[in-house]
Amino acid sequence: MQAPEDLKPLLEEILQDALTITDGKVADYIPALAEVDREHCALTVATLDGKITSVGDSTTVYSIQSISKIFGLMMAMERIGDELWQRVQMEPSGQPFNSIVQLEWEKGIPRNPMINAGAILVSDVLVSHYSTSKSALLNMVRSLCNNEGILADSRVHESEKSHGSRNSALAYLMKSFGNINSDVTEVLDHYFWQCSLTLSTEDLARGLAFLANRGVCPRSGEKITSHRDAQRINALLSTSGMYDQSGEFAFTVGLPAKSGVGGGMVAIVPDYGVISAWSPPLNSYGNPARAMAMIRNFANRLGLSVY
Amino acid sequence: MQAPEDLKPLLEEILQDALTITDGKVADYIPALAEVDREHCALTVATLDGKITSVGDSTTVYSIQSISKIFGLMMAMERIGDELWQRVQMEPSGQPFNSIVQLEWEKGIPRNPMINAGAILVSDVLVSHYSTSKSALLNMVRSLCNNEGILADSRVHESEKSHGSRNSALAYLMKSFGNINSDVTEVLDHYFWQCSLTLSTEDLARGLAFLANRGVCPRSGEKITSHRDAQRINALLSTSGMYDQSGEFAFTVGLPAKSGVGGGMVAIVPDYGVISAWSPPLNSYGNPARAMAMIRNFANRLGLSVY
Amino acid sequence: MQAPEDLKPLLEEILQDALTITDGKVADYIPALAEVDREHCALTVATLDGKITSVGDSTTVYSIQSISKIFGLMMAMERIGDELWQRVQMEPSGQPFNSIVQLEWEKGIPRNPMINAGAILVSDVLVSHYSTSKSALLNMVRSLCNNEGILADSRVHESEKSHGSRNSALAYLMKSFGNINSDVTEVLDHYFWQCSLTLSTEDLARGLAFLANRGVCPRSGEKITSHRDAQRINALLSTSGMYDQSGEFAFTVGLPAKSGVGGGMVAIVPDYGVISAWSPPLNSYGNPARAMAMIRNFANRLGLSVY
Amino acid sequence: MQAPEDLKPLLEEILQDALTITDGKVADYIPALAEVDREHCALTVATLDGKITSVGDSTTVYSIQSISKIFGLMMAMERIGDELWQRVQMEPSGQPFNSIVQLEWEKGIPRNPMINAGAILVSDVLVSHYSTSKSALLNMVRSLCNNEGILADSRVHESEKSHGSRNSALAYLMKSFGNINSDVTEVLDHYFWQCSLTLSTEDLARGLAFLANRGVCPRSGEKITSHRDAQRINALLSTSGMYDQSGEFAFTVGLPAKSGVGGGMVAIVPDYGVISAWSPPLNSYGNPARAMAMIRNFANRLGLSVY
């Protein structure tokens, strides 16, 4: 199918369809997330010609949670290069995102940077290599999204810290295997802070467009990363971006994607653009039910699978 | 990079490079495989315009082993449709290809059709739905490859049967969970037979071209499967086709691919063609070291990643 | 508490108490077991002075199932000595009795001879070292119990064979690690046959008295095994005889014991005698609820813990 | 064999035999333990008639490490009774003592109080129920051992804290399942402190004599715990006291026992006394090689198995 000139009517139809999905459960492990209105719903498509089309609450910011793993990973890859892959693998995990079992079997080497253990390890890299890892990351995100107003939500940040026992367990286990260099408390602080960044679907669509554009920001023309590294990040998102539904999402949609428990989700369409969606209720895998449905429907309607 | 008019010099160069790789170990769990000359090496590229370019032993047949899982899966998908996915998942396993641990945890439902348990389950589907599952599969393979001379190697077949204790364990465990319907002995006989099919790199390049061509055989124009199912098979190959190196292969190459312990390997390049390689010595993951290197080099030289 | 001269009133009281336990589920994985009347209940105590005191259906025979593992183990220990412990460990498993997970981790070496994998391995020893392993075992059991009428139940035997997929999986997995020497089918046939032996609570109390009497049969004065080997078998029963309740049974009762899914159970009281009970309904761990309660009450009333 | 009037010559012979064992490795995960002279060796037997017979360095104090789990457990059992068993099981683990895998599977409920996770949970009970849990425990130990000079080694305590990442991981994982009530840092501080207590073999032989004497201190006649609870603790030591060698120790010796990585070990002989040994080098299971050999030899020579 040819992409229509004006995507808005299609996006509107897809959003209305998604609103008929009424099951799913808003993340409630911390109060700050549980209070978010479950009816928020947004869908944005940014194409490489610079057009941004949105429907719903596309300028409302939300807690991007695990989607932030993409930004952290990219910074760590730029900073230490292939050395990173001595400390974290690139294989799908076949286990829940916060599994500690696999981490013990594999002697503290996380399966990939998209599961919690892997992203905590990436946080250790950032904390160890930047004097102020938070502001370095924030500056990068603001610049990519072309939005100086992007902030972390300090209430979510504090709340994560006080409910982060399992992530603490993951970090201490890696430390016991010698795979965390900095102070565990500082590493976790960075990790929780990163998860608490708040962006809108439009911010994210703009901010990740370089992954669809061979590493180059389509707005500024700036080279953010190499074509090769953009492909590598997309490969990781394809095999490991959607938790325990990564295989199913590849099978039914076929696009690199990442979700977060705040209800956000992004999919990268190489040489086309970014699809960015948000709706808080999560399915049993911890993926946002409506957001995933909207992205699947858009991709299927336009035949956007990479395979 | 633009694909050159004549691929032969490039393939020749890549094959010569691969010959410098001297480690790796020929599969020796059965005598019939152990006796194969480790110096065999072949590389074939079939493009959708009908051209087939080869270097090395590209017309010598070898035991395709796990590559046969693609043919079995396609037949089962055509025969019982989405019902198949009630009995086998589509997620990466994160475990060795013959792991029995995960099969117990997940109550006899294999993780995907590319690991042994999944392919044995597919064999059960074929045995249960075809009066003569072997000849049905053989006819399909011969037709796809346009080669009526394709045969199974009866010595390999018998040898597999008498060394198949672990696969028997997988089959009986699935049976104990009620996920095998036919007689276990018959199911395993089909499975081992299928693994013992012998094809050349040219046969395989021709036979799988429909996966790169939206389900249509580029030679005959016949629709082998739907575009959607071709994409779905490619997605499974991308997340699960290369055993415990699937993530790494996606990361470093980015193409749907499948390997076998006979030393064969194929990669699908959507809308371009098929890369087919063979060289017996296996690396520590059970993937053919030279064949994988040849495919990676060709893909990288031409920039063929789907991501 | 001093043991009373006449145990009968105490046993009667304990049996009546046990009849108030009404939950539990008769084993139903094979029809021949499912049809047993759930109301059967028997309790026998054999003391080393030769007295046998019984209440309930103490002369009715039942399928002893896993209790037969004691006889098989003793025969194998006598036959091949400490060589046995190269092929099976002596550690508690911490896993369900039919777990295949641990067997894979530990490369086909079962955790102990009281779990299914371990007893199948013991069966392989017997099949490999006796020309007619079944009649050799049967003769030993008849002699120990002083009852030439003891038989296997051929209906249970056949039924086990046709529902034994999981045990087949365990056997083939051990075979794949090179830890089964004889033909798997023959080994499983011996194992299922052994499980189908039918004895009464009185038979078992008599037959296992040597374990409470330092290896010597208190009736005949014959030395069945060394004192040391009697202690070793009792140690195995203490750490591993009651499936996933072994620790709890040691904690609450403190006697070497073994149960079977036919509802039978025996406990050894060193230098005192044997407690033998039967009642078909099983608790959630697969242990016979009433039989276990009767043994616990008798032991607690007489203060019989070894600890 | 009758116990000889004077045990000293036998103990001397056993100690000399043990000195011929030269392999094993002193615990070196913290400097304070690594520096201990590996040649220390001591053996003490305390019988219930009040006699204490020793050979070797039996008055030199050492870090009792995991042996302290017995004291902590007893205090928690006295304090909260059977409520404790809602939060920790009593089953053998079948896993290494510091395994985090099982703890995840079983949702934060440790397998038994003798593995690290279980002892950390016990520490949480003590910290939550005593205003000053350390001094309460210390007073109890001093009183049991009749030695007001007993102390914790502050250097070992600090060292454990700074090398305790894996124990931190266990504690945070339990916390994430809601099975730790107090502050994790405080709980771990108690746990590490308890492990750093220093006693001699004579102190321990004296201090644990009540477990061999039905709960009553044989010196003072004071009832320390009920007969039943003494039996229950002995049962736990029998099934779980010797890490991954618990089954083997039951099989070859047959006594309730506990070891520590400081090289200490105790065995309880009900109605006879306590065997207490110390020698720093550890075998591959983390059990003290010489101490275990001395206890095994003494028990075998006197035929002291409980089975």
TrEMBL record, chains A, B, C, D:
<keyword id="KW-0007">Acetylation</keyword>
<dbReference type="InterPro" id="IPR012338">
    <property type="entry name" value="Beta-lactam/transpept-like"/>
</dbReference>
<feature type="binding site">
    <location>
        <position position="116"/>
    </location>
    <ligand>
        <name>substrate</name>
    </ligand>
</feature>
<dbReference type="GO" id="GO:0006543">
    <property type="term" value="P:L-glutamine catabolic process"/>
</dbReference>
<feature type="binding site">
    <location>
        <position position="167"/>
    </location>
    <ligand>
        <name>substrate</name>
    </ligand>
</feature>
<dbReference type="GO" id="GO:0004359">
    <property type="term" value="F:glutaminase activity"/>
</dbReference>
<feature type="binding site">
    <location>
        <position position="191"/>
    </location>
    <ligand>
        <name>substrate</name>
    </ligand>
</feature>
<keyword id="KW-0378">Hydrolase</keyword>
<feature type="binding site">
    <location>
        <position position="261"/>
    </location>
    <ligand>
        <name>substrate</name>
    </ligand>
</feature>
<protein>
    <recommendedName>
        <fullName>Glutaminase</fullName>
        <ecNumber>3.5.1.2</ecNumber>
    </recommendedName>
</protein>
<feature type="binding site">
    <location>
        <position position="160"/>
    </location>
    <ligand>
        <name>substrate</name>
    </ligand>
</feature>
<feature type="binding site">
    <location>
        <position position="66"/>
    </location>
    <ligand>
        <name>substrate</name>
    </ligand>
</feature>
<dbReference type="GO" id="GO:0006537">
    <property type="term" value="P:glutamate biosynthetic process"/>
</dbReference>
<feature type="binding site">
    <location>
        <position position="243"/>
    </location>
    <ligand>
        <name>substrate</name>
    </ligand>
</feature>
<comment type="subunit">
    <text>Homotetramer.</text>
</comment>
<dbReference type="InterPro" id="IPR015868">
    <property type="entry name" value="Glutaminase"/>
</dbReference>
<dbReference type="Pfam" id="PF04960">
    <property type="entry name" value="Glutaminase"/>
</dbReference>
<comment type="similarity">
    <text>Belongs to the glutaminase family.</text>
</comment>
